[in-house]
């Protein structure tokens, strides 16, 4: 394989070097012609493959453009010569019929010049009326098209202007809202901090109240409180107590009056035993009433 490569490399390298040297020669010749035309010397620079490739492309493109420009210029020169010949022939014809430019009035010359300028403006080949009418029709059509495009552009411009005004109004509103929100940030943050503090206090109070509720519930369970003992039952029992107190008060008064009896032990003992029995009966009656009230509430 090395023999094949070594056998094929010299020809490839030779063709490549010939190709590069030909490109360099073309580029140097093109640069010299261009700078000579400008009256300057070719600057020194390093000929690398990249610069040679770019300059060769430029030279090829420039030569093609120059050749095309030369062809167009030659065509224009030929047309100019033909126009000059035609102008000399027309001038000769006009002189023969007595219509030479020197012999015409100034207003006629001015009108002819104006007519020629209009023909050049309308891009017509002659000054005949039909050519002018055709050119005016084309110009009218172009004018109509331009007016239609202008109206369309104006309509689009109005729509864009309306959108722009709405966008500016919306932007102004958003800026005002943003400024208001920025102004409200500090008070809202302070209020949020206050709410956080109050929330922490409320959480602590909630735990405290729950603990107190549990303690009170346990206390009520210990003393035998049941939900059946309501406010109405307690009021009724208080009324019964007052009635019993009213009934027992005369007995107590009677017992107190016995303290003034003469010191007869037998009579005093009998009286005391009688009063004790009445008092025991009254207490039993009070207990019976309380028990009946509790049984009724249950």
Describe what you observe in this structure.
The two termini are 119 Å apart. The chain is mostly helical and 298 residues long. It contains six helices and no strands. The chain has helices at residues 2-38, 49-96, 106-122, 129-222, 231-257, 265-297.
Itemize the secondary structure elements and their pairings.
Blueprint: H1 2-38, H2 49-96, H3 106-122, H4 129-222, H5 231-257, H6 265-297
Helix pairs in contact: 1-2, 5-6
Q: Proportion of β residues?
A: under 5%
> Rg to the nearest angstrom?
65 Å
Q: What is the number of beta strands?
A: 0
Low-pLDDT residue intervals, each spanning 5 or more residues: 1-15
Structural class: mainly alpha
Helix and strand pattern: HHHHHH
Helical content, roughly? Answer: over 70%
Give the termini distance in whole angstroms: 119 Å
Summarize the model shown:
By secondary structure, this protein is mostly helical. It has 6 helices and no strands.
Key traits:
298 residues, mainly alpha, single chain, 6 helices, disordered N terminus
């Amino acid at each position: 394989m090395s023999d094949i490569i070594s056998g094929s490399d010299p020809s490839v390298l030779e063709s490549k070097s010939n190709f590069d040297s030909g490109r360099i020669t073309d580029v140097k010749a093109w640069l010299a012609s261009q700078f000579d035309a400008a009256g300057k010397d070719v600057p020194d620079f390093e000929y690398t493959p990249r610069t040679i490739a770019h300059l060769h492309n430029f030279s090829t493109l420039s030569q093609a453009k120059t050749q095309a420009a030369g062809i167009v210029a030659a065509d224009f020169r030929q047309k100019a010569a033909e126009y000059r010949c035609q102008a000399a022939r027309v001038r000769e014809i006009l002189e023969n019929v007595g219509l030479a430019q020197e012999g015409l009035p100034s207003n006629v010359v001015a009108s002819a010049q104006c007519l020629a300028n209009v023909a050049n403006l309308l891009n017509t080949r002659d000054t005949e009326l039909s050519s002018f009418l055709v050119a005016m029709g084309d110009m009218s059509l172009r004018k109509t098209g331009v007016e239609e495009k202008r109206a369309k552009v104006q309509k689009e411009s109005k729509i864009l202007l309306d959108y722009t005004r709405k966008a500016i109004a919306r932007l102004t509103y958003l800026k005002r809202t943003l400024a208001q929100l920025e102004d409200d940030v500090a008070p809202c943050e302070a209020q949020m901090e206050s709410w956080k503090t109050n929330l922490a206090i409320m959480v602590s109070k909630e735990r405290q109240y729950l603990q107190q509720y549990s303690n009170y519930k346990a206390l009520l369970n210990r003393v035998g409180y049941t939900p059946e003992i309501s406010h109405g039952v307690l009021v009724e029992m208080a009324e019964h107590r007052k009635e019993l107190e009213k009934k027992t008060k005369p007995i107590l008064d009677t017992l107190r009056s016995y303290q003034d009896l003469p010191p007869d032990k037998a009579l005093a003992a009998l009286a005391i035993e009688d009063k004790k029995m009445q008092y025991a009966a009254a207490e039993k009656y009070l207990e019976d009433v309380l028990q009946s009230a509790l049984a009724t509430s249950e």
